[in-house]
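Re: weekly structure request thread

Next one in the queue (410 aa):
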Amino acid sequence: MAERTWDIAIIGGGIVGLATALELLNRKPGLRLTILEKEGQIGQHQTGHNSGVLHSGIYYVPGSLKARLCVEGKERLIRFCEEHGIVYDMVGKVIVATDEEELPRLQTLYERGLANEVPGLELVGPERLREIEPHCTGIKALYSPATGITDYSAVARKYAELIEVRGGEIRTYHEVTGIERRGGVTQLTTPVGTVEARFIISCAGLYADRVAQLTGNAAEPRIVPFRGDYYMLKPELGDWVKGNIYPVPDPRFPFLGVHFTRRINGDIWLGPNAVLAFAREGYGLTDVNVGELIEALSYPGFQKLATKFWRTGLEEMYRDVSKSAFLASLQRYIPELTLDDMVVGPSGVRAQALAPDGSLVDDFIVDEQGDTLHVRNAPSPAATSSLAIGELIADAAQKAFALDKVTVAV
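Done, posted below.
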């Protein structure tokens, strides 16, 4: 039996679920709200394994949710960090062209960034590039001084603290395994009991499609997990990279390519690559969930993606097991880098939404289904955009659930 009926239950205690809860409680004090998180702590997956970059909004299609919410969200997050004493650093980023064929794509990125109103963008030549990143080589680069870094785990913890101050509740070890609508409320089955709520918001990340299926919603777009492995620069070489060094993305391929990322603690991450994870939470090569792997491999969307990009996929897999191949990709930007300069680093898993035709779902997606909202796709820059995404979801919830008419606790 459920011990009480909540106004809203949010499934998933990652940064998007937390930001959504905080926004709802700020708008409607007294709202009976709980977050159900399957792990023992919040933010244990994509939130706790991302690169820590405060993205400026260069890459995204003008007019898309990603473009708008990244630019808005970054400014809001900076103000949040300042207000709550969370460290951030606007270290900047260079997107570097190393050959002539990349120059038109670099120009397109520049124009896209201007359209998205990213401040301070500058196209620079080799000399200016060396001033910004003394060890980096390229024929031209796009410099974004409005790109920064922070600690998203610290951000998530502060969100959680404020949620509880405002009367919300966070329940860990509450994996939702069943969802049933009954008598005007939704009953959510967990290993430690049933939770009852009038309305549901799913921010389930790597399991977004699974939770959608529990409510009778469509399985597509399907979540296919891609693992990204990093190396790290030896600590004594930390001053080789001042900010972030990124490649010019190739729109023909689904992932960005390896890059150099300065972390807020001074570490320099090198990578990541992108390979199919053998489990939705498969952070290592030996982490295998046979059922989840078969599910991914048998999905027509993945099969079409793999057929289209088989050569790229093989290269990524080879680079995943060959440190020399990984080094060669990095040496395009810092030629003096050697194998001895690299040590094994962390890894993360990206929840990539794939359509049945094999196309990667690019923009953020929030679907309404009766008394439930599903965040179906929230990849990077979701952490940067989290406060703005939370506002977007709260707007949708306010409309779909008629929250203005909900009587709150006093």
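The domain at 5-47+153-221+363-405 is CATH 3.50.50.60 (FAD/NAD(P)-binding domain). The longest strand covers residues 342-354.
Next request, please.
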